[in-house]
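hi! just following up on the protien thing from before. the input was this:
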Amino acid sequence: MNHVPTLLVTGASGHLGRAAIDHLLDVVRIPADRLIATTRNPVTLADLAARGVQVRAADFDRPDTLDAAFAGADRLLLVSTDALLEPGQRLRQHRNAVEAAARAGVRHVVYTSMPRPEPGSPLLFAPDHYGTEQALAASTLDWTVLRNAWYFENLFLGLHPILQGGHWYSAAGEGRIAHIARQDLAEAAATALAADFDGRRTLTLTGSEAFTTREIAALVAPIAGKAIEVVDVPVAALVEGMRQAGLPGQLPEVFASFDSNTAAGGLAEVTGDFQALTGRAPLPYRAWLERNAQAIAAA
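and the predicted 3d structure came back as:
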């Protein structure tokens, strides 16, 4: 009888990790007792535990928790954390996880990275992703790096003030972003985790089209029922505006560097890697906007 691998998903309380778990259970039909879901707070995953999923506590800031959390896993999905307030914290977390995976005898790690994280990227947290990729490369592990483009859902992060004032302040210029739906990326992560691939590979997962900020505004405005004017501003003005809005620490600089990276072309590439991995095309942006029309109008 063939061995059924045990699959582990970190960050299972987050949007992406939970969606990957749900896809594994409900679509791929992985037996619940062959799934491990880790989180800092297992109480939040009580419903998964009730279905038979092994729910374990894991804190990447406490490496002593990881050996027990990862024990028995054959393949592990390492969902990048959201620790952005303290420079270097996220990379330390990821290195702790990579080292623990190797100690636990994990065969394969799937890691959620970003497009073009190499040195020289204007995005301030790109070194976290590149450093994690380097840690995997230096390890004894096999791995799949998923360089995930930005979510369509990121639109909601700033949509309310945009619609309220009618202005979209941007330093992205004519740079393009090949956004993709978060659910599509969760499916891709689940597919890579459940696959029988045991080598090393890097895939860049993008949508099928790349749009400028002005093009996105033109698509969103009629759905929202509000006029949106894109106003070009320097990066320093974006930082100051976010600081005045109360964003703490280095977050204004981090979020402004999204636009710097877009302007530099860091997110413009469109690839066929999503379809090659999942067997289908990613959801188009216009279709996602139509599906979320009510939420957009309510913003």
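Strands lie at 7-9, 35-39, 54-57, 75-78, 108-113, 142-148, 167-170, 200-205, 229-232.
The chain has a mean pLDDT of 96.
cheers
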